[in-house]
């Protein structure tokens, strides 16, 4: 016989239960979407070493529908193709003839054709992913510089017409009263100059050199 407490467990109204169920379902959907998300393609290098005029590559990664040209370098032909993770069969077309890469792994397809095979693994690109993350972090740090925001540009300075005809600044009128070699009153000592104006203080005056001597005067008080 069930007790009253056991029946209450099934009959009580728990308001938190629907919310917890919704959170669990949302978490489960996110988990499924992450598991179904396509893997990021990885740059894969195809290289043909040998004498040739033109080289192409094709494989199961493009359903053998198109031929991707390889670029000629100093010693070989190279092409970089973005491939998803997994196993891919491929073959080179050298000067119009389908040819296997003698340095690569081979396998026999279901049709009996022998093709080269390559394994694209995520672990082979962990170093490149780490370098990419580091470069992104360094870019973020560089954005924190002290330079103010906004666009910057470099413009060549163009000499304006008014820049060519600039004259020296006009001397203030109160500095025209030079005390050197100025006539003095007879009652004054000829070796003493008149008392300068207050605006002439802290100025140094000099005349041209005559008879191997220069005459200077400082407006100090």
Automatic annotation (TrEMBL):
<dbReference type="Pfam" id="PF04739">
    <property type="entry name" value="AMPKBI"/>
</dbReference>
<dbReference type="Pfam" id="PF16561">
    <property type="entry name" value="AMPK1_CBM"/>
</dbReference>
<feature type="domain" description="Association with the SNF1 complex (ASC)">
    <location>
        <begin position="145"/>
        <end position="220"/>
    </location>
</feature>
<dbReference type="InterPro" id="IPR013783">
    <property type="entry name" value="Ig-like_fold"/>
</dbReference>
<dbReference type="InterPro" id="IPR037256">
    <property type="entry name" value="ASC_dom_sf"/>
</dbReference>
<keyword id="KW-0597">Phosphoprotein</keyword>
<keyword id="KW-0444">Lipid biosynthesis</keyword>
<dbReference type="GO" id="GO:0005634">
    <property type="term" value="C:nucleus"/>
</dbReference>
<dbReference type="InterPro" id="IPR050827">
    <property type="entry name" value="CRP1_MDG1_kinase"/>
</dbReference>
<dbReference type="GO" id="GO:0006631">
    <property type="term" value="P:fatty acid metabolic process"/>
</dbReference>
<protein>
    <recommendedName>
        <fullName>Association with the SNF1 complex (ASC) domain-containing protein</fullName>
    </recommendedName>
</protein>
<comment type="function">
    <text>Non-catalytic subunit of AMP-activated protein kinase (AMPK), an energy sensor protein kinase that plays a key role in regulating cellular energy metabolism. In response to reduction of intracellular ATP levels, AMPK activates energy-producing pathways and inhibits energy-consuming processes: inhibits protein, carbohydrate and lipid biosynthesis, as well as cell growth and proliferation. AMPK acts via direct phosphorylation of metabolic enzymes, and by longer-term effects via phosphorylation of transcription regulators.</text>
</comment>
<dbReference type="GO" id="GO:0007399">
    <property type="term" value="P:nervous system development"/>
</dbReference>
<comment type="similarity">
    <text>Belongs to the 5'-AMP-activated protein kinase beta subunit family.</text>
</comment>
<dbReference type="GO" id="GO:0019901">
    <property type="term" value="F:protein kinase binding"/>
</dbReference>
<keyword id="KW-0276">Fatty acid metabolism</keyword>
<dbReference type="InterPro" id="IPR032640">
    <property type="entry name" value="AMPK1_CBM"/>
</dbReference>
<keyword id="KW-0443">Lipid metabolism</keyword>
<dbReference type="GO" id="GO:0031588">
    <property type="term" value="C:nucleotide-activated protein kinase complex"/>
</dbReference>
<dbReference type="GO" id="GO:0005737">
    <property type="term" value="C:cytoplasm"/>
</dbReference>
<dbReference type="GO" id="GO:0007165">
    <property type="term" value="P:signal transduction"/>
</dbReference>
<dbReference type="InterPro" id="IPR014756">
    <property type="entry name" value="Ig_E-set"/>
</dbReference>
<dbReference type="InterPro" id="IPR006828">
    <property type="entry name" value="ASC_dom"/>
</dbReference>
């Amino acid at each position: 016989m069930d007790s009253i407490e056991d029946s209450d467990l099934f009959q009580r109204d728990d308001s938190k239960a629907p919310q917890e169920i919704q959170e669990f379902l949302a978490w489960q959907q996110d988990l499924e979407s992450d598991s179904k998300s396509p893997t990021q393609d990885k740059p894969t290098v195809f290289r043909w070493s040998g004498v040739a005029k033109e080289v192409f590559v094709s494989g199961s990664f493009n359903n053998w529908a198109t031929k991707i040209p390889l670029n000629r370098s100093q010693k070989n032909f190279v092409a970089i193709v973005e491939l998803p993770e997994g196993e891919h069969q491929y073959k080179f077309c050298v000067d119009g003839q389908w040819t296997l890469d003698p340095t690569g792994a081979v396998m026999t397809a279901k049709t009996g054709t022998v093709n080269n095979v390559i394994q694209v693994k995520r672990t082979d690109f962990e170093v490149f992913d780490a370098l990419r993350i580091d470069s992104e972090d360094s870019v973020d740090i560089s954005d924190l510089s002290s330079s103010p925001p906004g666009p910057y540009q470099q413009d060549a300075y163009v000499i304006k017409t008014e820049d060519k005809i600039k004259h020296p600044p006009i001397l203030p009128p109160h500095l025209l009263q030079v005390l050197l070699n100025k006539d003095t009153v007879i009652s004054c000592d000829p070796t003493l100059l008149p008392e300068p104006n207050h605006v002439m203080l802290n100025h140094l005056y000099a005349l041209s050199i005559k008879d191997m001597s220069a005459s200077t005067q400082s407006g100090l008080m």
